[in-house]
Structures are given as C-alpha cells and as structure tokens.
Amino acid sequence: MIRVFLVFVALLVLGALKLPIERDLTVLHRQEHFRGVEFNLDLREKLGQLGFIAALSGFRAIVADGLFIQANVAWERTEWGRVLLLFQQITTLQPRVIMFWDMAAWHMAWNASVAAMNDKSQPRLALRVKAQREYFALGKDFLERGIKNNPDRYKLYEALARLYKEKYKDHERAAEFYGKAAAFPDAPSYEQRFSAYALSYCDGREQEAYERLRQLYDEGPQERLPTLITRLKFLEEKLGIPKDQRIPDKER
Asked: Is 136's pLDDT higher than 60?
C-alpha cells in the first residue's frame, strides 16, 4: 500500500514538473511560428503507411529528404502529378523548410505550367491555357501556405511577388509582396526597388511610385540603376514633373 502511494506521489510530482516545461515549449513554438505536424488520418493518407510510421518515430527530416530526391527524379521525367504529390508530402513533414515550399511553387508555376502550354498531345489551346493556369494556382497555393508556416521569413513573400509579376502580370500584388519582403530587417535592398518598379506599372498609382523611386534615387549612386532611371524618367513624363525637378538628362 505504501509503495502504491509513493508511486502515486512520484507521478504527481513528475506531472507538476512537466506542465511548465510543456507550457514553455508551446509558447516557444508559437513565437517561432512552428505549426508542427498533426498526426491524424489526413496525414496518414498523404504520407502512406511507411512515411507515417517514420514521421511518428521522429524521422520527419530524413523522410522528407528521401521524398525530395524522388521529386527530383519525377521532375526529370516530367511526371507533374507525382511531383505535386511528393511536394505535398514533403511540405507537410517539414513546414519550416523554406526551400521545399519555394521549389514546389517553382515546379508547378514555372516548369509544369510551361509543359502544359507546350503539350503537343493537346490540340486545343483553350485547354492548354486552362491547365497552365491550374499550375499557376498550385504554385500560388504552395507559397501562400508556406508563408502561413513561415511568416517570419522574407523569401517566400519575394517568391510570391515574383509569381504575381511574371505569371499573373499583376503588378499591384507584386508590389505589395515585394514591399512585405522589404519590411524584414534581413531582406536585401533590392526588395524596395522591385516593389517600386512593380508599382510604376499600376494605373492610378503613378504618383506614389514616382515618389518612392525618387526617394531611392536620392539615396545615392548605388541606387541609380538602369531600370530605376528608366522607370523614373517614364513617370516624370507621364506625371508632367516640372523640368527643374527632374533628374539630369545625363542619367537617361
């Protein structure tokens, strides 16, 4: 009886010690935007039996790396459906690895979409365009989900801005996401320029774009790149900026 009582007391003590540790870990995970992996039937269906068991065993990184190798093989074989499936599994297992989200989006929105548009087995242009846009959407979805899992990293914001610019020709959204990327303290300086460049193509926002480009120009020679000069001169003409307020002609 005494032994049972001592075991019961020991369990209570261990439980009391464990609770604050688990609470601190939960807070840390939230601070680090770590969403983790939910081990449920949906994950079981995505990963298959062996992958699910490995994930439960704590080998998510190893499994994800193995799947990544398989995804590259599928890419070389242009097996786009398999590439999609594998990257869905990879990003589920390792949601905090930026490269996996970025590569998944690149394969879908760039590689697979080009393959769909050039698919000689499909004679109807409308269906090729439809397939291309579906791959754009898949790439966009990967980046949006990647940002949800990594809101503290600038690279996926930049990748989403590039997708809006190059695939959707949506310069306003591109400017928005380049701007979000630029807000991070470790972001490259070109993010600000790219945001202003994209904004300069947006009807109705020329004045804002001009002011931002002019501010960059005034920061010094290191910012006076050919594209910036070209877009700035274009906006000066379009907005009718007085001659004495324009940048020198030698900058043309």
From this structure: yes
Supply the DSSP symbol for 180.
H
Q: Are 100 and 68 spatial neighbours (Cβ–Cβ below 8 Å)?
A: yes
Residue 116 corresponds to which tokens in the numbers above? 């769909």
pLDDT at 48: 55
Q: How far apart are CA 170 and CA 79, in angstroms?
A: 29
Summarize pLDDT for 228-251 with one digit per residue, the tens. 999 999 999 999 999 999 999 776
Contacts of 193 (CB under 8 A, 6+ apart): 216, 223, 225, 227, 228
- Whether the full predicted model's pTM is greater than 0.90, yes or no, is no
User: Angle at the Cα of 43 (from 24 to 65), degrees rounded to 5?
Assistant: 80
Q: Which residues have CB under 8 Å from 157's CB, separation 6+?
A: 147, 177, 178, 180, 181, 184
